[in-house]
Amino acid sequence: xxxxxxxxxxxxxxxxxxxxxxxxxxxxxxxxxxxxxxxxxxxxxxxxxxxxxxxxxxxxxxxxxxxxxxxxxxxxxxxxxxxxxxxxxxxxxxxxxxxxxxxxxxxxxxxxxxxxxxxxxxxxxxxxxxxxxxxxxxxxxxxxxxxxxxxxxxxxxxxxxxxxxxxxxxxxxxxxxxxxxxxxxxxxxxxxxxxxxxxxxxxxxxxxxxxxxxxxxxxxxxxxxxxxxxxxxxxxxxxxxxxxxxxxxxxxxxxxxxxxxxxxxxxxxxxxxxxxxxxxxxxxxxxxxxxxxxxxxxxxxxxxxxxxxxxxxxxxxxxxxxxxxxxxxxxxxxxxxxxxxxxxxxxxxxxxxxxxxxxxxxxxxxxxxxxxxxxxxxxxxxxxxxxxxxxxxxxxxxxxxxxxxx
Amino acid sequence: xxxxxxxxxxxxxxxxxxxxxxxxxxxxxxxxxxxxxxxxxxxxxxxxxxxxxxxxxxxxxxxxxxxxxxxxxxxxxxxxxxxxxxxxxxxxxxxxxxxxxxxxxxxxxxxxxxxxxxxxxxxxxxxxxxxxxxxxxxxxxxxxxxxxxxxxxxxxxxxxxxxxxxxxxxxxxxxxxxxxxxxxxxxxxxxxxxxxxxxxxxxxxxxxxxxxxxxxxxxxxxxxxxxxxxxxxxxxxxxxxxxxxxxxxxxx
Amino acid sequence: xxxxxxxxxxxxxxxxxxxxxxxxxxxxxxxxxxxxxxxxxxxxxxxxxxxxxxxxxxxxxxxxxxxxxxxxxxxxxxxxxxxxxxxxxxxxxxxxxxxxxxxxxxxxxxxxxxxxxxxxxxxxxxxxxxxxxxxxxxxxxxxxxxxxxxxxxxxxxxxxxxxxxxxxxxxxxxxxxxxxxxxxxxxxxxxxxxxxxxxxxxxxxxxxxxxxxxxxxxxxxxxxxxxxxxxxxxxxxxxxxxxxxxxxxxxxxxxxxxxxxxxxxxxxxxxxxxxxxxxxxxxxxxxxxxxxxxxxxxxxxxxxxxxxxxxxxxxxxxxxxxxxxxxxxxxxxxxxxxxxxxxxxxxxxxxxxxxxxxxxxxxxxxxxxxxxxxxxxxxxxxxxxxxxxxxxxxxxxxxxxxxxxxx
Lengths: 406, 252, 407
What we know:
A: 12 strands, B: 13-stranded antiparallel sheet, globular
């Protein structure tokens, strides 16, 4: 019965219905999309930051992160490899060995990182291979071939095909030096990284650095990146207590928090817009409810209980809110889905992204049905909530006053 | 009035020049000077073995070194085979390295000065600054027994040295250090260098076993031992060793 | 006459007091939110830029040709006196400082790290960019003999050194030898200019000259102008005058910050537009209803000789009063809020790890610009006036006189 009454009234007070539907729809769509955009771009930025090099999960010797010395290496890479290989939910993994060396070109000597990687496995785990700008990426047969950062190459004044040397310390603290030939140059867009990092095949690295079966860390790619924390925890159970598996949420805490701050400001802006919107819905409800004051007075006079009137009016709001939230949700979700598939390209803010080590300007929106439902629910509550005040206010008016309301 | 002054002056002398130690300030400096001279010699040619021990490994290296005073030195690695022919040249405060495998002379940049030298517990800087003790530190005698003087070397404010204080035990017999402890600015012990087994090489006495023990927690289990196998002091050494060209020339 | 109309307008607003209050409240709240947002966001953006300009780039920086790409002592700015003469003579330029920079090593008995050594003149820097305000610990002084050193906060943390501690600074000097200095930490700076906090070691420029054996010359001359509007003009002129040097404005030295500011402007504009459109819709609804429910009233007024012009004035005045009251309340609220955050700042210390990753100050001080209030006034006026256009049209079409006869 209430529904029928409500439907009738919704049709009768077209203006209010229209504005309420319009605004609630718009707001819902906006919230759904804005959330999708923020989550999506944050996810993308983190994903980039994680995937360029650090990886979703890292296994290190337990003291390595605090004291990254040659005494705190993984000294039995084979054992770690075996344990990690047995865990399910892992897409791939590879060992790395990072050291600090002095590179010497013909003109200049520059300090930098020399890292031994397993080229073919690494290719699946990080964006090193796809960041190639000149020459070629490494392969598992490579000997003294170097894959180096663009800025580092520039600092040393070398190009693909050129020779340079390194001087460093092997895993056993012995002296290590060799000639290298530049095979490829990469550019991730992260200046610091491009200016200091270079890579060689780990089997070659093992020979010159006396690092057979050693690693400074393993990186692991989970089949589903969302499981990174779970897998890290599980690995800590599997692995010897000597080792520690940590997900990117731990290793890149600062960035994670930065994204949170950004979200907070995003929601702050949205809430300013929402305040206005809900004031408008409130005002329109107010206007319709008071336009019907006389009708309400008559209903009261013929014996309708205030509770029933309240129910009737709220049913109207609920119907309106529901329709618009569903409509808005669909629009927002459609947009989110579209831009999920077709990322938005921000060419104008490229520099900014780089500055924060994010190196990405194509931002897909997130498409997460649960989050969309959450936003819709929030909007529904707000929309209905903002009509309550005028409804309660109208219900308080005495029947006689209501009838005489002009 | 005058009497009081005289008493004060006497008291002053008593307090500052005669407490505990039996040596005046100038003779403390003499001790340090003598120790430095004894360690460096006018010229020195040494053959020594360096054993670097870490938590996991133990490596042995052999090398020859030629030096004039404390400003010029040349070192050549002779063992193991893979490092054979690596040479180092130090002239004043600059240091170069030649690596035959890459056929390059590399000047050790400022940023590498505090890195470990050949994986040992000595830094490049230790080699370069080896013996500027008398310039960089203010020595005071803090005690002695029948065999040794105990000296505290406090870094001069303007001296570019990382240590806050060095405690040096010096044998009275040879005027050579026995134990040298390096403290940081907060007087926390960072490393200890022991000079053991003094032998005579001609007229020259010289410690033939040196033990460097880092005390930093991060370097637990590390120890570097140098054993001097052969030494010749104060004979003429060819100046040709101390040029950049020598790095390559004497590498073979 | 206008006073009568005004009284009529006020009376009709008063009759629907709650409703009128709602509209006023809506405008006030939206304005409050907008002002707060604008002030905080602008404050944040400008703080970013300000930090970079004050601690490093100035409004304009001069380098030797090619220094930025491949820095080295051999690329020092020479003939400083000549440049200084030009800079001093130009009355658009407020101040300038010179800095000598070289990469080197900072060391203690336990740790060593790469560092960027800046030889600076503290007094000049203070006049130039109020460098002392970034001091977190210690004093803004290199001591009597210039043996003091001021470190970037992150560098100090990584080296685990505090005030009074000795550090050894070594660097390649002009003769390509390594020279070193022993210094004591007198201060720790946090500029939130990440590169500086992470690497910078500030020493007196004379000490730097002594260390680097460079009796004259500078790596960078940082310039501040009086009026920021003149930055491009001054930059252009200096670039033409010193063709053998690189003269760069801050926004080409920090393109990311420049982009950030532009993005923020667009973002603020879009938000404001949205808010005012929606608020306009609210006013529109109320004015529409208020016109429609008074059709009879207006009919009678017309019948007794009131002109439509006058009725229109009444409607405009009503709408305008609503808008203006909302504007006044909102501005007052927003202004006070901004003033609070201008004075005390918005403290986000709880997210400090994230803020540090952004290079953001933990406390953001709001900006208050007259333009916020002027634009808002224009927007509110616009919204109130536009939103009554349709109701008036309806009123005109409805022929109020006929309305009297209805019912």
